[in-house]
Model the fold of this input.
Amino acid sequence: MNASPSQPRPAEWTETQGLLPSVERDLPAGRHQFHKEQMMAQIHEDLRTDRTPIRPALAPRRRNPFLRRAIVLPAAAFALAGAVVAGVALSGGNGGGGRAALATGPALTTQIGAADAKGAPQLLDRISLAAAHVSGPTPHAGQYIYIASKVAATYPQTIDNKTTVVSQELHSRQVWNSLDGKNGWLIEAGETSDKGMTLSSDTPIDSAYDALVKLPTDPDQLLQRIYRDSDAVRDHEVPRDQAAFVAIGDLLTESYPPADLAAALYKAAAKIPGVVAVDDAVDAVGRHGVAIARQNDAAGERTEWIFDKKTLQFLGERNVVVKKVADSPFKVGTVTFTSAITHRAIVDASKQVPGRAG
Done:
């Protein structure tokens, strides 16, 4: 979030060199959010082993950042429809290779940080100011946005008619997206082969760089646009203000917004009713920070964007159950999605790892 102490190299912009705020969550996480974002291959594997999981799908990539698990579709339906809804074609990497099932363990839980509605505007103003002063290279035609993260999700799993809540092991995720959002590559442990899979779409994703640079940077105009676009796709059970909040998170996750837009997105978030500051939150790799959050009362979950307490650099996002909901298997304190951004850069080709040749 804060300006880089040294001039970043044109082809690379790491977390330690200066970072624009991340969405995405999706989804990112979410945030939580989440996110994000194990679809037919895992379902086939579950059927083969006589397992019937009910889980929130983490789509490999969303064509539209508003098509998020927490906004558009029930989790069980999204697991089956994820790739179709997102309008994304997925194909295996060179040489193929199947997906390896992720190990699961007990549900992730956390201490719930105290929420402060009065402190949210001031914290968002500080985050916006820090974002506005970030200095990074401008991507050029033919380049890709590279983002590496650590993610995990929690879901109910049914085996032999017994349902328990389990969490994935924390795993690595790497995404390359073209500037127009039509092409990309995904490598995610447990979701793709070691070589990854192609991401392609005739319709660009809304968080693609070329789309982001066309958005208004006036916070009021930007928020009107966000409400309009999220209204067009949100599920009627999701409150309008919550959909807008998650949409902003998705525009910041796995993307590379210009500094002026990032600052405007935070100022726009401050205008959404119900947004709070949280005194302590932890990202997927254990980094503590402060958070900007909003609670979806219908789901009993709070979406949190997590920032470093000193630098206000974006760390990650998560979804935390803060209220028990009837018929929900999740207990208060359960983390249903968590993510941590570990590297963000501009590279010259898909599948090129920053600091190496393609």
Remarks:
- The chain has one domain: 15-347.
- The two ends are 27 Å apart (CA to CA).
- Confidence is low (pLDDT under 50) at residues 1-91.
- The helical segments are 40-48, 75-86, 120-132, 209-212, 219-231, 240-252, 259-269.
